[in-house]
Amino acid sequence: MKRKDTIHDHLFKQIGSSLLLILLFLAAGQVINADWTEVVENRKQAAFFLEGFLQPEWSYIDRLLEPMIETISMSISGTFLGVITAVPAAFLGTNLVTRNPVITFIFRTFFSLIRTIPNLLLAALFVAIIGIGELTGVLTIAVFTFGMVSQLIFASIETIDIGPLEADNSIGATRFQIAVNAVWPQVAHSVYAYALYSFEVNIRASAVLGYVGAGGIGVMLNTALSFMQFGRVSLIILIILFLVFLTSLISEYIRREVI
Amino acid sequence: MIELKNVSKTFPNGVVGLNNINLTIEQGEFICIIGLSGAGKSTLLRSLNRLNDVSEGEIIINGESITHANSKELRRMRRNIGMIFQQFNLVRKNTVQRNVISGRLGYYNNWQTLLGLFSKEDYQRTEDALEKVGLSDKLKVRSDSLSGGQQQRVSIARTIVQEADIILADEPVSALDPVTSETVMNDFKRLNEELKKTIIINIHSVELARRYASRIIGMRHGEIVFDGLASEATDQKLNEIYGKAIFENEIQDSREALEAEIEHRLQQDVSTEL
């Protein structure tokens, strides 16, 4: 059987791109001087680290409760702010809604810009502007969420059925009315799901944000690490793990039962 | 009254959609537009409420030019023109009630729409309209759980609450099986007879056109090639204009409708199993 009679229409292209990927991987390793032997050579340090890890300092938990709640509230308010602003922005970022390529282009560029800024840099920026504290964390998470969710929402707007939009247009509805009446119901469920997803991501992210002084449990993690109190580090990591696990359970439940 | 004066439409890719159409339609007429695919039926219909702009000429509705209306005037004029689509164009995830009441959107402002502040009268209109199309029991049902025929009748209810004098329908029965097609066509007939609405329907089926329309307009290559009473559109006359093609179309049409129906039923079976 000849190849063109089978389903392998792009065989050479596929082989070619696979080879290219492998080549890129190897070349990248060369450039950064990745040396796998280091992993083995430094095992003593790893053992020291792990030893501390295996003995979580349980008594420390009292002082972690408050930062833990702080982290959760930071994520909730940050996610809320981010999603609330992302929805109208994403609507304005689609031609389908605006019928105006200029507006769409401006918003799209803005989205890309936001998404290019790394999370930690964003936090560092806000620390510089507002100072250390929870507000910084909330704003960082809000901007980060905005970037992520706006992208997801406008992608789903572009896949909706345009029939209802046409119907509303034909009866004399304004573009705003069309967005509310015909577009929103078609993407609402996706938006809820994205909000939950970004909440999950944000719990993890906010743990790291404390590193640069944006409040929450990350601050404790940073301190413990600097003082090499691995028992505390291990406890904090366990708690973060627990939080992440819990949020994914909850959001899973909401996705299934409510949405 | 609808008047078309020397209306032409050329698409950006050079295809001629309409070629110098002159037409007058009185209030209360029941018109079926027939012709092969690509004859310009849809273009003509969609020009009437300016879903597409015309390149030349002017369309005047009840003495007002829709061609030269600004966006605010256009929206006001569109309130008086209902439209029914081949694919129903309902928001599938919404309830029947929400879909029908959105026929009133032209009478609300942006904020009222955002907050869903519809008036008591409009909720009443919605119920009355659903009763007229025999779907009173489906008020709170999700639209995509209805059959194709029922969905089309929901979209007719949406047009009824709009209380427009003119109703345009673009291939409203092409996606429906023959029996359902008749119920839908009967809905149009009642709207025409009881409420004196102007009905303009694009339709593939010559047979349905002859049975329901008072006046038939035949199109070919963007021009009107027949315009007369339904009784004048005899097989012989149409044969002269179109050749056999227009009748063969019908056979294929009913086959397509049947296939669509089967597919729809299958999909429903699958979705109920899930």
Explained architecture:
The complex is a heterodimer of chains A (259) and B (274). Chain A has twelve helices and no strands. With 259 residues, chain A is mainly α. Chain A has two domains: 3-50, no CATH class; 57-257, MetI-like fold. In chain A, α10 runs antiparallel to α12 (230-257). Chain A starts with 10 loop residues before the first helix and ends with a helix. By secondary structure, chain B is α/β, with parallel strands linked by helices. Chain B has one domain (2-18, 53-273): 3-Layer(aba) Sandwich (Rossmann fold). Chain B is built from ten helices and ten strands. Chain B has helices spanning 41-48, 71-78, 96-101, 110-115, 120-132, 148-162, 178-195, 206-212, 235-242, 245-273, and strands at 2-10, 16-25, 30-34, 56-61, 64-65, 81-84, 166-170, 198-202, 215-220, 223-229. The model of chain B has no long low-confidence stretch (mean pLDDT 89). Classes of the chains: A mainly alpha (259), B alpha/beta (274). Chain A binds chain B through residues 161, 163-164, 166-174, 176-177, 180-182, 185-186, 188-189, and chain B through 49, 51, 74-79, 81-83, 85, 87-94, 98, 102-103, 105-106, 108, 110, 113-114, 155, 158, 162, 164.
What is the compact description of this entry?
The complex is a heterodimer of chains A (259) and B (274). Chain A is mostly helical and 259 residues long.
String of helices and strands of chain A:
HHHHHHHHHHHH
Based on secondary structure, the structural category of chain A is mainly alpha
What is the overall number of helices of chain A? 12
At the fourth level of CATH, the homologous superfamily of chain B is: P-loop containing nucleotide triphosphate hydrolases
Helix content of chain B: 40-55%
Radius of gyration of chain B: 19 Å
Oligomer: heterodimer
At the first level of CATH, what is the class of chain B? Alpha Beta
Largest interface comes to:
A-B, 21 and 33 residues
- Global shape of chain A: globular
Q: How are strands sequenced across the largest beta sheet of chain B?
A: 6-7-8-3-9-10
Could you give the order of the helices and strands of chain B?
A: EEEHEEHEHHHHEHEHEEHH
Radius of gyration of chain A: 24 Å
Distance between the termini of chain B: 50 Å
CATH topology of the largest domain in chain A: MetI-like fold
Q: Give the number of DSSP strands of chain B.
A: 10
Main sheet characteristics of chain B: 6 strands, mixed
